[in-house]
Amino acid sequence: MRIAQIAPLFEAVPPRQYGGTERIVSFLTEALVALGHDVTLFASGDSVTDATLEPMWPRSLRTDPTVCDRTSLHVAMVERVARRAGEFDLIHCHLDYLPFSLLGRQRTPWLTTLHGRLDLPELQPVFDTFSTAPVVSISDSQRGPLPQANWLGTVLHGIPENLLTPRPVEPDCLAFIGRIAPEKRLDRAIRIAQQAGMKLRVAAKIDAADRAYYEAEIAPLMGLPHVEYIGEISDAEKPDFLSRAHALLMPIDWPEPFGLVMIEAMACGTPVIAWNHGSVPEVIEEGRTGFIVESEAAAVAAVRKVGALSRESVRRRFEERFTAERMARDYLDLYRTLGAVSRPRLLAV
């Protein structure tokens, strides 16, 4: 199958450090190539792939301070893809609603995976208008705010089976990894670790948009004696970081669409303690791969129980449920379904 993968330009594919959507695009692209498909990746020029790379800009927008209007480059990329649509059997976009209008006016089957939160009121008129745009969710819970969307299916994320593996180290802390942002609630993680009498290692980035929040709410907590701030880390650093943790803390305060860090921890055999929001119940198996909680007191209690979980079993469940190959095969099923049906009319009338 000739497949076009259309990635956001914000990060390289894969990202050098933090980055969710572009990381998944990389894992999916490489798994499809490994399964024998002819894949063309439209992405930033500093991306690394076994597919055919079509660079849309020399480097990721996050690393290029000369770019002020990031939307313009994505609009140009979608146009280029549309002009070449006849070269592909299937076009798979990861740009949210941006390609809906243009790709809906050409004949090659296409779909978009929605990677972000969908509970924003301004999305309602978009999906009312493009009610037949073929979309995929990354968890069933993500769909809730948009029942009118044309959902083709849910494909849970996956990562390469041997990208992250357990390390033979003795756990000595709790871990937090991701972004320092209000919805991620690092403040909760710091309090939980303190009440549990354990060190908390924090591997996280701070976006410019969250700098004021960090300075006002989080910076005063980072000097506490049980908190160790590592900064952003790469995939190569994650196995040791996560293997050293008794558990990953994910005390989120928002409808998390998926939460890639949960399966990264599982790949290292590390249980997850997460708040009962969004996708968490679809990813974490209570009492098997971690604990699902709704309060800081419950999280502290879970920390005290986590040692009874088998880290070998956590890793095994990752292998059974969350590999990149499984993700790629799930998408191939959707691709074949799209190829077997006629192109829908896209614009509501």
Q: Could you write a compact summary of the structure shown?
A:
This protein has helices spanning 21-34, 70-83, 100-103, 123-129, 186-196, 211-222, 238-243, 260-267, 280-283, 296-305, 311-321, 324-339, and strands spanning 2-6, 38-43, 52-55, 90-93, 110-113, 134-137, 150-154, 173-179, 200-205, 227-229, 245-250, 272-275, 290-293. It has 349 residues and is α/β, with parallel strands linked by helices. Helix 5 (186-196) packs across helix 10.
Kindly describe this structure.
The protein is α/β, with parallel strands linked by helices. The protein has 2 domains: 2-160 and 324-339, 3-Layer(aba) Sandwich (Rossmann fold), CATH 3.40.50.2000; 173-321, Rossmann fold (3-Layer(aba) Sandwich), CATH 3.40.50.2000. The protein is built from 12 helices and 13 strands. It has helices spanning 21-34, 70-83, 100-103, 123-129, 186-196, 211-222, 238-243, 260-267, 280-283, 296-305, 311-321, 324-339; strands at 2-6, 38-43, 52-55, 90-93, 110-113, 134-137, 150-154, 173-179, 200-205, 227-229, 245-250, 272-275, 290-293. A 7-stranded parallel β-sheet has the order 3-2-1-4-5-6-7, with helices on both faces. A 6-stranded parallel β-sheet has the order 10-9-8-11-12-13, sandwiched between helices. Helix 1 packs across helix 12 (324-339) and helix 5 (186-196) crosses helix 10. Mean pLDDT is 95; it is low at 342-349.
Annotation keywords:
about 350 residues, alpha/beta, Rossmann fold, 2 domains, 6-stranded parallel β-sheet, 12 helices, disordered C terminus
